Queue: 2 jobs
Job 1
Amino acid sequence: MMTASIGQNVLVLNRLWQAVHVCSVRRAFTLLYAGHAHVVHEEGDSYQTLNFEKWHDISQDYCGADVVSTVAFKVRVPRVIVLLFYDRFPKKEVKFTRNNIFDRDKHTCQYCGKVFPREMLNLDHVVPRDRGGQMSWENIVCSCIPCNTRKGNRTPSEAGMRLLRQPKRPRWRPSLHVTFAKASEDSWRNFLDLSCWHVEVG
Ligand SMILES: [Zn+2]
């Protein structure tokens, strides 16, 4: 008989110990049992990686409720596993979205350098649209409304304004969008960058 903890999630790390996925407990056990993953077990200040057999062994001394058990069998539910073979990042790129542009530019107007709440920021076409400016990572920046108005339908040099930095596609960061509620799982915290991009990993 399985306990309720089977409904919980397990954080999956790739070989570089980067969070790449969240899977079901059932899936985690399948990966562990097949030898595709090890359990990442926090021991004081360090982590041990344990194969299924060792994890099963140390589970016998464990008294918590988060176990999968039968009359003859008991194994603790892992919270984090690390994949042994898979080290590809999910192929999806950082999505080109309004929120991700705000994140990339850290809510900072790229002209005056001030930080604003989201609702006071616009997306600015560096090269105006009617001059062939694309809707792209390289041509869209975060701008406050006064700067956006001042710049109008001009290039920065025409407007006598200067970009803080040249806009670029953000470097891929293989992190998950995990809400704080889910990440309240303490054992996950060290592996999650909570200021991560909103990337769906499927
Ligand atoms: Zn501004």
Job 2
Amino acid sequence: MDIDNLLVTLASIHEFGIKTNEILSKEEFSQSVVDAACSIIHSDLSSLMLTNENDELYIIASKGLSKKLREETKLKIGEGVAGRVVASGEYIFVENIETDARFLKSSHVEKYISKSFISIPLKVKNKVIGVLNINSSKNKKYFDDRDLKLITILADQAAMRLENIDMFNNLQAFYLEMIQALVGAIDAKDSYTHGHSTRAKKYAGEIATKISMPQTIKKNIEYAAIMHDIGKIGVPDSVLLKKDKLTSEEVKVIRQHPSIGYNIISPIRFLSAIAPMILYHHEWYNGAGYPEGLAKEEIPLGARIIAVIDAYDAMTSDRPYRKALSVKDAVEQLKQGAGKQFDPKIVDIFVKILKEEKILN
Ligand SMILES: [Fe+2]
């Protein structure tokens, strides 16, 4: 490899770092590590394994492996090449399996489809969290020391990032628990909305999956569904729990809850993306909602999703002033509101989900 090629390779490792900066799912990130490894050292066979809570190694991402092999492979620490790498914390590099003393006596040599492979530990401080395996392919029979060095750079960067994803997710989980506790307090205040946020999260996630949203956006929509009414914490009980008809003044007060929610959520950095979904969850598709009278695609998609499931849940729950509507009647109302209050596409998807789950016949 000449210096120009080396520079190109290093640049692609650097670019990999930038490109993957926003990825928050371990699966997605691991897949980019595997893809980057293959493209950097010209292979088409690689896997990234992580340890699970039972101290087993499993394949979280791979290239060139069958689905069956990927799903079924589980190794104990110390078992197989990857298991040995985790146990020792040292890489195993086989330049040529046919001349390598460690494999000469093994009758399993034929089992190895490649002649050369690198198995490198993913280490954070002194802890091994997984292994990156790369096998040579037909195009390039043997790896050399330079390949090993490049893969080491990638593996070190990947290990650090995987650990960060874990830390970030833990921090998120902590915030989320706090917020769920807050939301629980609101749900508890108004017994009629009990369980509302949990159901909203479930349906929001299902809709997001149906429209193939990226994992991060799906998560945000789920969070927004849980927290959309958090601003009600700032509405006095005398208004929030009033059983009689609200005066126009009281309607004004209750209509502040999206803005109050927005002000609570937007300063929390990892939740700032969902603040607009909370602010606009009472907007109408035809522009007749509040607080700003946004219409159609001006309303964030997450807010349009919440509007549908929020209305459905309200209609199918008992209220002080009326009994719950049947699922069939609630769906009828949603269909009638499609294009007016609700985004018709979201109503369609939601109705499909209710049918698939046999909630609606
Ligand atoms: Fe609301």
